[in-house]
Design brief:
Elements: H1 5-24, H2 30-41, H3 43-58, E1 67-71, H4 77-83, E2 88-93, H5 96-105, E3 110-113, E4 126-132, H6 140-153, E5 154-165, H7 187-194, H8 208-218, E6 221-229, E7 238-246
Parallel strand pairs: 1-2, 1-4, 2-3, 4-5
Antiparallel strand pairs: 5-7, 6-7
Helix pairs in contact: 1-2, 3-4
Length: about 250
């Protein structure tokens, strides 16, 4: 495989074509399709901005930048960005094709196919962990298991970042349906289908208190900040939460 500028350009083009082809199978509207493609193909840029934000927020000195992990690493953009700031970084991802693309795009990273409820690393292995938009896609019981696993693989004094949607958001980010997250399971699935949604029928968002309790019961010290508001209007409830974790 080519590794020079020409090879990197060819790989990027191949990846962009793959994402466009995959988007065509998901039943997006033209607007949501283009947004999804942009989101997926700009993962390195977003990852780099987040990695710098986390270093600033946690004020991590050089001696605490040895190992970082991205849980639910997708196509590898954030894991790569973290590798530029830490001595080593890796990721774990459940979807086979994303694992393959992450390994192909970033051959120097440790990308593992697996589940967040059983992380294949020893206790106290990482200084920092990040997890974007993953927890809402696993059951409430598995959320507890994943939180415990993250706690286990972090060092004492280690830190973590989790981005999650708010249960009480005005417009469901996953389906584009107004107030659908307010409905309990399984009623929500029927509501989403009735309103024209056909994806992400099994999401498990929690309220601010629910997310906070999940990680505090695991053993973390927790700080939460609102991440976004509908139309940037703070009169509305936040769409997402940024959760910052500290392991004592």
């Amino acid at each position: 495989m080519k590794t020079g500028p020409e090879g990197r350009c060819s790989l990027r083009a191949d990846f962009e074509r793959f994402v466009e082809e995959r988007a065509s199978t998901y039943g997006f509207t033209e607007q949501t399709r283009s947004g999804w493609i942009k989101y997926m193909t700009q993962d390195v840029e977003r990852g780099s901005a987040l990695a710098k934000e986390l270093l600033l927020h946690f004020a991590l000195p050089k001696e605490k930048r040895k190992r970082a992990l991205d849980v639910g690493c997708g196509f590898g953009g954030l894991a790569y960005a973290l590798s530029q700031e830490f001595e080593s970084a890796g990721g774990i991802e459940l979807v086979e094709e994303r694992v393959e693309w992450a390994r192909r795009r970033f051959p120097g990273l440790e990308i593992v196919k697996g589940n967040a409820t059983r992380l294949p690393w020893p206790d106290g292995h990482f200084d920092l962990m990040a997890c974007n938009d993953v927890f809402e896609h696993v059951s409430y019981e598995d959320q507890k298991k994943a939180a415990s696993e993250i706690f286990r693989v972090l060092k004492s004094g280690g830190v973590g970042y989790v981005a999650v949607p708010n249960r009480f958001q005005l417009r469901d980010d996953h389906n584009g349906i107004w107030l659908s997250t307010y409905f309990p399971h399984p009623i929500r699935g029927y509501v989403v289908k009735a309103m024209g949604g056909n994806r992400y029928l099994r999401c498990f968002e929690q309220t601010r208190g629910g997310w906070k309790k999940l990680f505090e019961r695991t053993g973390f010290r927790v700080t939460m900040l609102p991440a976004a508001f509908y139309r940037n209007n703070r009169f509305f409830p936040p769409q997402h939460w940024k959760i910052y974790l500290h392991k004592p």
